[in-house]
Each structure stands twice: as C-alpha cells, then as structure tokens.
Write a structure and sequence with these properties.
Structural class: alpha+beta
CATH architecture of the largest domain: 2-Layer Sandwich
Helix content: 40-55%
Number of helices: 11
CATH superfamily of the largest domain: Bira Bifunctional Protein, Domain 2
Distance between the termini: 95 Å
Bound molecules: phenylalanine
Number of domains: 2
Shape: rod-shaped
Length: 346
Amino acid sequence: MDFDSLSGELRRLRDDALAAVAGASDEAALDQVAIRFLGRKGELTAVLRGIGTLPADDRPRVGAVANEVRVAVETALAGRGAALRSEARAARLAAEGVDVTTPGRTIGRGSLHPIPETVAAIAEVFGQFGFVVYEGPEVEDDLTNFQMLNIPPDHPSRDLWDTLYVDVEGRLLRTHTSPGQIRVMEQARPPIRALLPGRCFRYEAVDASHGFEFFQVEGLMVDEGTTMADLRGLLDEFAHALFGRERATRFRPGYYPFTEPSVAFDVQCVVCGGSGCPACSRTGWMTILGAGMVHPVVLQYGGIDPERYQGFAFGMGVERIANLRHAVGDLRLYLEDDLRFLEQFR
Ligand code: PHE
C-alpha cells in the first residue's frame, strides 16, 4: 500500500458515502448509512487498517485525508438529517392541517316543546289578571288529591279518576292539579289568584285522546265577593286571547265534587267556527275546561271562612289546548320526542 492508493480509496469511500447519504429516504436509512461508513466496524475503519503498512512519513498525511473524509461525511449526514426531519414535519402538518376556510356546520336552533309553550301562553293570559304560578307535588296523598276536595273514600265520584296508587299508605300520583288548590290555601291567605300547571296521571288505556300521563293547568281565585260572573268574564278573556276575539263561549252545567255549581266551559269550534264539523261532533262547540265555584267545604278544609270568602276554580287539559292551537290530532305525539314533529313548532 502506498499513500496515493490509500488516499484514492478514501476519496472513493467518501463519494460512496455522500451518494448513500443523498439517497437515504428517511432517518432510519440515514442511521444505517452512518453506521456503515463511520461505525466502529465501518468502511472508514477498515480502510484505515492499511495505514500501518505505510512509511512513517506518509501516515499523518493519510490521517489528514481520512479526517477530511470523516468531516465531509458527518456534515452531509447532519445536513440530510435536518432536511429529512423538516420534510417529515411538513408532511405531518399537511396531514393534520385545519382548513380555516371550510364553512362551519350550522347548529340547529331548538325551540320550546309545544306543551310548555302552551303552558307559557296560558300563564301569560292569566298573569295579566294577577294570577301567580304555583306548583304542587306529582306524588300526592289521598287526603289532598281526594278527601279535602270533598271526595270521601268509597264515594262513587272517585270513578271520575282512575287512580295510580304508589303504596297502600294512600300515596298516589295526582289524578288532576286540583289538590294544588288545597296546597295554595294552606300557604296563602285571600285574596288568592293562583295558577297551577303540572303533570297528572291516570290509569288509562292510551289512545289519540287519552294518555296515562298528561298536563293540566289549574286556576284558583278566592276573595270577598267573588262571583260566577267574575269566573265567566275571566274565562272569556282567556278564550278570546287564545282562540280569537270573535269566538263565542258558553257555560254548560257540569259536575265536580269540589265545585258548586260546576260548569263545562265551551268555545265555538275553532275548526268550523260553529257550523258543525267532525272535530266538534257537529255541535259547533268544543269544551276546553271544567270550572265552578269552590265548594264551601273545600274552603273550610283550606282554612278559609266560607261565610266571608268565595272562590272559583277551573282546570284544563294542556294537550287539548295545544291540539286546538296547533291543529294536532293525536296527543301521543307530545311524548314521543320525534324531531319531525317537534321541529314544526319553531
Ligand atoms: N280537576 C278537574 C278534572 O280533573 C277539573 C276541574 C278543576 C274542575 C277545577 C273544576 C274546578 O277534570
């Protein structure tokens, strides 16, 4: 071996190494190139093994050439490494990139369910006459749901309400919002103007016009000199506000144990205007609520002196009112949570 051939081999090695560096397509391949040329068992080490056969004068000169080769290869490795890392980063950014010009997804706007919406419309009208909203419990006791409303145990009028009992102690799911009358009288003194919306329950076979779960709004007014005419005037205002000024109304005799006298309140059919159609069974009238003068016994149970105070009460089914407002024919729709139905009330 002489200097020329050894340094020639080193230069070839350098050219091979630089070509391999340039051809490495990722960082792992680049690591392999480094090991192959510069590693402890690599090609540079192998070539330098021949250095011992050279005359002593030539050895430092070959060492200098070998150093140049090593620096050249190391520089190329570092440069290629940096390039590969920034390529990889650019590729990752491109893949994960967010296109800020993409149009946003529109968020559907919600709306009130037609039942609470109807309750709000009812409360709005009565609110204008000073009625304040109260709420009673859904699980009631027999005493408040029946007995204090003048419906004794085993009285035949209990047949009006098919009751769901919670236990044998007489707890039950309220069959109407009327026990709220008692609850209000227990906590307020006349003059009373209370509105009691709430969920009620009855043991019913479910069909288009009966649910075992439904909503009522109860009204109660107690004051000195309250009369049936006040009740009639108030209900007229209510019917006109919800169904139109031009609509006629009427009282028909009715029966409830907790009011005396009791009435059904009818509004001229909102579908045919009174000429008679299937919606009003060809009568021209629709019953929208039950009402009457609070029975003196009920006032007494509520701790109010019936000699001094009189009251009226009314109760209406919210689904029925909502049906008339929105021309819905089946109250099961209100509980099904079907968006195709609910979206129509936006
Ligand atoms: N509570 C009665 C019902 O469930 C309605 C009503 C309330 C009637 C108040 C008169 C007075 O049908």
